[in-house]
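G., the chain you wanted modeled:
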Amino acid sequence: MSTNSFSYTENQTLPIPDASEMRFGIIVTEWNNEITEKLLEGTLEELQSNGVPQQNVTVKRVPGSFELVYAAAQLAKFGHVNGIVVLGCVVRGDTPHFDYICQGVTQGVAHLNAVGDIPVVFGVLTVNTYDQALERAGGKLGNKGNEFALTAIKMVDYAWKLQK
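Predicted structure as tokens:
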């Protein structure tokens, strides 16, 4: 569904669970940091507004989006968190590099979710232009970081309910 016509934060059907005991890891890329720092701000803001204490959030940085998969795997293994949000931004260029990075990160995060014990939320913007990224990082389309945080809260709740 097109981002232009849909807002997750406005069209939620599931209630937002109590997140006060949840612990999150956020991994953010340095590449395109003007965008990723805004996504991080939105993610942190949304977690806090839903009761996640600041001390329950760990933020780690990696150079680029491809490194998010390794960092998420290690954080899941050693980070003592209940859920992870990976934040990145890949802008299409003149070479196939965009396709390789997007495909690798997508498959890597999907694999972590399939075999891992905690949810990893895919918060990587894959856009054709830098302006499209700005629109999704606090611009006219809002801040997707907020949506990534809500998804993480709901997925941790989902995982916890399965463990009962």
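The domain at 21-70+77-163 is CATH 3.40.50.960 (Rossmann fold).

Shout if anything looks off.
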